[in-house]
Every structure is written in C-alpha cells, then in structure tokens.
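Trying the structure run again after the queue cleared.
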Amino acid sequence: MLLFFVLGCVLLQQASSLTLTDDEFMRLPELFKLEKYYECLRQPGDTYCYVNARLYGNDSNDIYRTLVEYSAENFIHFDRTLIHWGICLRQSCSSFLRSNRTESLEACINSTLERYQLRARVTSSLCTDYQPETILDNGDYAFAAVLIILLLLNFLGSAYDFYLSKYSKEQGDIVTKFLLCFAIRRNWRSMLTRHGTSTKIKRLKCLDGFRTISICLVLLGHCPIPSLITSDNPALVERTYSNLPFHILVNGTLIVQSFFIISGLLTMYSTLVEGNNFSWKLLPQGILKRWLRLTPPYAMVMFFVMTLGRRMGDGPFWKPIIETEAEDCYHAWWRHLLYIQNYFDNNQCMAHAWYLAADFQLSILGIIIAYVLNGARAQKMAIGALFAVGLLTPAVQVFMQNLHAILIVSPEMALNFFVNDDTFNNLYKRGHTNLSCYALGLALAFLIYNLKESDIGSHKYKKFRLFYWMLFPIELFIVLTGAIFYIPGIQIPLGVRMVYSSSIKVLFGAMIFFHIFFTILKVDKTHRGILNWAGWGILAKFTYSTYIVHVCILRTYTADNDALSRTTFYKILMSYTSLLVLSFVLALTLWFIVEKPVANLVKTFIFPAPPKKVEKTKSVSMVADLASSKETVEVKI
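Done. Tokens:
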C-alpha cells in the first residue's frame, strides 16, 4: 500500500489536469450568479427564481468545448455546463414573460448567453413570490407549544428542586420525581459528574476524548460546504484538489468508522459488566432503550426543521436548501423515527442522520449477540461472522453497481449534500456496508473486559510505545491514500476499487482499535493524558446533540446568504470556529431542555433501577448511560 500511495502522490502532483487561467475563466459563463434578492421582491407580482440550467452549443464553439472538457474531470471540478443562477423574473426578464414560467426563464437566460453563442435548458427552478408577511401554519404552532411546555417544565422542575433543597421535603411521590427530571441544577451536577468508581468503568474514560475530538474533526470536514455553494471564486475550490493536505478533509469521511467501533464496544462492554442472563426477553427491552435514547433530541430537531426552521430566514438559497429539506422531512419523518432512512435515497431531510440509522440497525445486531446468544464462545463466533460479512459487502456492492471505492467528495456532488450520489447511497450510508468496524468494537469489548488490573500500566506493554505514537500518523496516511481516486485521467480498475473499498475501513478501524486499547493499557503517559483529560467527560455528553444540530446550522447559514462571497482560507477557518462554538452551545441547550430530562424520565419511570444492590446498580447505570449515548457523528456524517 505504501508504494501504491507514493505512486498516487506523484501522479496527483503531475497529473495532466485541464487547468484554466483567470483570464480564461473570465471568458466563460458564470457558474454561480445572483441578482439582488430583496430589491426584487418589493411588490405583489414580483418573483425571484433560483435556476439550474444545462448549457448547449456547437462542437465548433471553443467556449462550449472548453466547458465540456473541463467538466469531464468531475472529481475535482464543478460541472461548468450546469449553471446556477438567481434571476429576478419581472425586472430582468420582463421582455420574455410568457404563460409558462420555465419558457420565460430559458428565453431570459438565452438572451444573456448570446454573446457566448450558447443555449440553455432549464433543468429545475425554485421560485419565490412576493409575500408581505410570514404565515404560520398548525405545525409551527404545534412546535412552539411543545417548546413552551418543555421550557415550562424546566422552570417548574428547577423551582421545585430549589424548594425541596431549602425545606428538606420528601421526594418520593410521582409528581415530584417527574418534575425533578427537568431540574436544571440536578442535571448540571450530572453534567459535571464523570463515570463511577468501578475500575471496569474507569477504563473507558478515554472514549470521551476520542468522541469529542472526532466530532470536532467531523465539523471541520463539513465547514467548507458554504464555500462550495455561495462562492464567487469557485476556481479556487477546484484548485485545492491538487494539494495533497486538502485530501485529509475530503477523505476524512473515514472518521465515522471510529464511532461504529465505539458503539459496538459500549454495547458489548455494558452487557459484560452487568452480567445479565441471556434471554430473548431482553431484546425488545434493549432496542426500546436505544430508541428512547436517540429519538427525543433527534425528533425535536427534525420537528424544528419541518416547522419554524423554515420561517427563520429568506434569500435566493432558502428554497433550494431549507424549504426543500423541510418538504422532504414532511414526507419522510416516519422513516427517520424508525431509523430506516439510510435505505431510502434522494432525500434531503437530515441527510447527515444516515449514521444514526446505520448505528441503530447495527446496535440491534449487537444487542442480539450481547443479550440473546448464550456463552462467550457463541458470541465470539457471531462477531467473527459479522466481521467477515462486513469485510465482503463493500466489495460486492462496488462490483454489483460499479461504484467508486470511497465517497468522492467532488464539488458538484457537495452542492446537493451527496443525496444523489450512487456511492453515498449504496456504499457509504447503508448499515450492512459498515459492519466490519462495528464488529471490531464488539471484539474490543471482550479484550478490554478480560484485562487484569495488573495489565494496566504493565511494563510488558511499554515495548508498544513507538507503535502507539505512530498510530495517529498511520491513520492520516490511510486517509490520504484516498487521494489516488482524484487523479485526473486515470480510470481505477474495478478489482482495485473492490479491494480498496473493503480493506480501507478495516485498516482504519484497526488503527482506532489499537489506539483505544493501548490508551487503556497506559502504554504512554503524555498521549494518554491528553485523551483522559477530565474536560472531555463534560464535552462528550453533548457530542450526540452537536452532531444532530451542526448540519442544520450550516444549511441555515448557507441559505441565509443573499449574495455570493469570496472564498478564502481565513473565512473557512472563521466559519469552522463559529460552527464549533455555536454547535456546542445549541447542543448544551438541547441537552438541558430535551436530552437529559427525557433520559431521566426513562430511568425513573420506564426502566427504573432495582431497589437492591445499590452500589452495583449505580455503576452499571453509568455504563448503560455511556453505552446508550453513543454520541457521535461527520461525519458524520
């Protein structure tokens, strides 16, 4: 693989990609063009349309040939034959108004393209008519009512908690228990509390660091999205694909495999610590616990996207980005609540939540192995079978559908958040194509659980210190190998794609496997100290909500632009910083209002802890809470 990678780097730097100078770009029709939005919609009858139009011309036309040849390198270039324009219909196209709006738009665009000797055919258009005020519907009022009720419960619970602490009242009745689930002060204390004192539980505290750092990397990979959609210098975006370090971002989609490993690890480890009897009766209980853990904050955000979220802004991008997603959510919400949306394609609703569906599906398999199969031998055989299936399915999928080996983060596909990409739909987001790393997590749970206390920090493992320090560079190297699929003019053979698609996830997952294992073994003090920092324990509680809200923030920020802006590295850095801070702030709010109170209700009324064995129950409940969280991403995403 090293030779393969070195050869790919050389080819990437020396590839004969079609490049254009700034003067040559000036000769071409604008890829993105926006007329002034708010000045357009001033009176009844005004209409603003965001149009996608395909360009056509004669082969003898130099400009058209350049557009076609340049767009052929679609892994690293936008499709320059597909323009995206925002047009004020009455002001700019008054001479071309017809009864058919599409024909009016085509005639208007063609008049602009005459100097290029090109013609356009409208492929899609989303138009906004003048509307003097925002009109709310029943869904908007319903969401507002739910939000007000939740805020009221938080206020009442907090006030009642203060009253009880002041007057030392009894806390045994149902109403009291219900209100205290929403008490902010109690939930604040829970937020600041790390895992229990059991040595078995404390072994896993490094996972907080892995999860928090990983979600930050997911946000880093997603933050350039606005630059792809609202850029007035798209050529700069295209040129970055020739820089090898940039491929850490575009191929960083592998990071999601670390969350599958952690998910499998926590599912199996909590079962081993609890020491439950094996029974089919535990299967529906385990699935219901997982569903109740994931759904409340997720449903709240999706409900917001469907209702008030679509009313919170306006602009030329608002309909194609925000209202399209809201409309898709209106029709597909039930798939999301059943966590089967990753097997339905071409839908914009919460597209990044494919991971939640895949994780839920894999968790069902993990619960079956953990709670139903009797004996460690049967469990290990099942894990081996899952790993084998997970190793083969990506290759089979690539072969059957002639897919790319990895998700190609091309500029054009990113415009639609990948929902129309065959590789994203059939290889990246399916549950069965992510089995291998989940199985590694299940296996890792056995390995960690069976460690003796004398093994932790033992000198016999110090010989792996150099390998431990090399793990992060190796992970970066594995990510960078994906750059070979962006080399212009090279067709990767099907066999290579099949092998790569299966092996790359396992190789990256294996490095995460060893990274977690050697951190728990305390092979190195410095590296382990970073991952075991106490602050990660607090931030990790919000990573699930952060994953849910961060793409909604990105979409809203992008859609609220009413003009194109110049893309620079500094702006992307500032965008990342803002996204990181705002995502965690909103996640903190969502955690206090919805996530933590509902988790308290579930533990208090649906699955209350047994009255006996208090010490054990406390430790086990903390592990179960950790296992049920599986707070992830960036991914994903």
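Residues 614-637 have pLDDT under 50 and may be disordered. Worth checking whether this holds up in the mutant runs.
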